[in-house]
Amino acid sequence: MSSEPSPVPQSAVSESAPHRWSTADLAGPTLIFVGSFLIAVTIALPTLLVGNFREIPLSTDFTTVATAADATILDRCSLATPAARTLDADLVRQQRVVAVQPSDEHRVTLQAGTSVQTDTLRIDDREVEPEAPRPGSEVDAESSERCNDATVNALKDRVTLDRETAVPQLSARGASEIQYDSNQAPVLVPDRRGFTYLLPFDTSLTDHEFFDVVTRTTVPLRYDGDTEVVGRDVARFRAEVPETDLARAALGRPVGTDVTITRPASWFGLDGPPRELTATLRHRSSWDLAVEPRTGTIVDAKITVDEFYAFPEGTPGVPADFRLPHLQAAFAYDDTTQSQMSRLASDLATPITIWGRIVPIVTGVLGVIALVAGGFLINPAWLPPRFRRTGRDSGDVT
After folding, report:
1. Which pTM was predicted?
2. DSSP string over 83-122
3. Which of 113, 230, 372, 381 has a CA positioned 20 to 30 A from the CA of residue 195?
4. Which pLDDT belongs to residue 206?
5. Do residues 303 and 66 make contact, with C-beta atoms less than 8 angstroms apart?
6. Pick from 397, 237, 383, 392: which is nearest to 303 by CA?
7. How far apart are the C-alpha atoms of 248 and 281, rounded to whole Å?
8. Rounded to 5 degrees, what are φ and ψ at 47?
9. Which UniProt keywords apply (predicted)?
10. What pLDDT is recorded for position 1?
């Protein structure tokens, strides 16, 4: 007599069968994980990634061109004539700033080459080429540095800056050196302070310091309100460089080259007995800078330069107000430079805007949505009644 196995209770089958996660079961935790990740990204982007965009790029390389019409320069060819002669000129000031070594994640060394060139000269109301022969030029025709060279002056400046603050960082391997003459060694400036070629990101609208390369002095850079350049809102800063005798000794070296002239008094146009006098070159200037404050980029500049030869105070037979012009000009960035520097400011600001504002807003909103949706899926009791799953929907047997 065979016996049939007793049926296994349904409850025992249900307890022994492995539980399998359905897509609906996984949706809630997945959304919470994704939401938490997006919130973490929202917090990290402005603090970790964007900070790297607020530093002077190691790829810095830009050129500015400023022009000056109706300037006055001393004709160097007149050094070989009986009397000093000044000329009316149109000038071009060109400057290239490029990042060089030593540079790393914390600092950058900028090299700036600046030259002032004569575009046209006017002699006796006639426009002539700068290299054209004129009285006195035949004397030094064989010289390596002709008096009718188009270059009025030129210099090269190297300075190591902190990439975040844009201030000179002269400790360790950092340095500041200025070369006024290609035939002479650069002059070291170990006490350099202030901004020159750019300002830091998020420039504060307060007073700062400006370093003048010609006189090697630091002067106040005063905030002077807001203006607009190429449709862009910018901050104005102004620096005044007082009259400085460029023949003065600084660290054992004169400031610049050709800073003295020794000629007969009659050459200077002075009356009196025949005698030789020595005049020294003086410099004063003003800088009106338009700075895009988010990036510290100088998008426009007006530079007024007044250089002249004068005698020491109290020189017998010399009027107190005697001045022999060497370079008197008002330079201003041309339209092309303004547009290029404005685009540079945009290029520097765009990653900050995208990764510091737009992307965090998007990831933050999506993260909150994902967290809320995941919470509702994990705990359906939070949902309104009409959205909750009923027993029939969930497969329960009644």
Report:
1. 0.80
2. S--EEEEEEEEEEEEEEESS--SSEEEEEEEEEEEEEEEE
3. 230
4. 97
5. yes
6. 237
7. 10
8. -90, -35
9. Membrane, Transmembrane, Transmembrane helix
10. 47
